[in-house]
Amino acid sequence: MKYKNFYLMSLLAVILASVYPIYMGFVTLSSYLQNGSIDVTEYPKYIIPYTPICIALIMSIALMPLIFKLFEGYTLPVVSFLGTVIFFASEFGFEQIKVIEGYVEMPLESWQLSLCITTPEVLRSIGEPIYAANNPAFKIHFYLIAIVIILAVLNVINGFSKMLREQDFCKKRPLIAQAVSVVLFIGLCILACFTAFYRNGTINISTLSAILMSVFFIVFGITAGIYCGSIFYGKSNLLSKIIPAMTASVTTLIMYIGELVLMDGVLFKYGNGFFFEPIEGIPFSAADIVIILVSGVIAYIVMRLLNHSNS
């Protein structure tokens, strides 16, 4: 009974959290089906990747009991694969929608790129985003964010469901840590959507913006690291601590690469001075490298504490 209650509450919570992204998708699809495109004034921002993320989570969680009956011990990899496939199918579907600005028709993904490059301050000054030439590579960080969120949420729900179903609570601590990290990361994603972390439209950003972006990168890496660590929880030092730490840093690095692609080979500067200047020969500053390493160090500390409490 506890398992069923938890599962139903989890599904309901995901549905409630998805109301606005699903609504955005519904509005966009309705306009597209009626007119063959969507006018820029009617385009709800940040449909991609958040509407496809919500569709993937709702559908995969709804099918989780059936997947358990069919695959039992392989439920997590199967439901994770399913969620990923549903996400990309939904994502690519939405990306085919055309957005019209005046007499210019552009793919929705190109319009989304222009929203990413511009900031709230720029939008207020020029009225609408500047059209950015389509470069599919900019979606590296969109896709990475989506996959980490989907995998982490499914890991938490499947993990707690399995724990309650089997009354085996050995992985309770890493699952709680995973839940905290993914909720915090989703919260940062929502903040980024509505504020763009208060960037000012230039490479040199404010202290507040620098702090928020740094926290975003670090929490993102930690979420991926804890995901890896929860799977190998209780195993060898290499699997349960070092690999999760490396996963966290590599994930943060890939996110930085996505930003490089988005920003045409440059990164935002978090401050003034040599510590924030790009190192000769590479686009990363010492501050960027520290952020990449910090995500791994914190992931290692978290997994070390969790594994130590289990010993």
UniProtKB/TrEMBL annotation:
This is ABC transporter permease. Coiled coil: none annotated. The keyword Oxidoreductase does not apply. The lineage of its organism: Bacteria, Bacillati, Bacillota, Clostridia, Eubacteriales. Keywords: Membrane, Transmembrane, Transmembrane helix. It comes from Desulfosporosinus nitroreducens. The chain crosses the membrane at residues 7-26, 46-67, 74-94, 140-158, 179-198, 210-233, 242-262, 282-303.
